[in-house]
What we know:
By secondary structure, the chain is mainly α. The chain has a domain at 25-62. The chain is 79% helix and 6% strand. It is built from 2 helices and 2 strands. It has helices spanning 3-22, 25-53, and strands at 55-56, 59-60. It has a two-stranded antiparallel ribbon. It is elongated, with a radius of gyration of 20 Å. The termini are far apart. The mean pLDDT is 87.
Amino acid sequence: MTIAKYIKLYFKLVSAGIRAQLQYRFAFVMRIVGMITAYTGTAVTMWVMLYQFQTLGDWNFF
């Protein structure tokens, strides 16, 4: 198989996975909401920690 066929197969599998997840639309939406919430929570936590302590190791607010 050539690399182009592998790439085409990869996108077919990704497409099939997305279609499978979309069969349960509420679960799909809630997964996205959960991921956004988790990333936002991580960013807010880092902001609070750096704002409170000014530096953490070599990390600073800016």
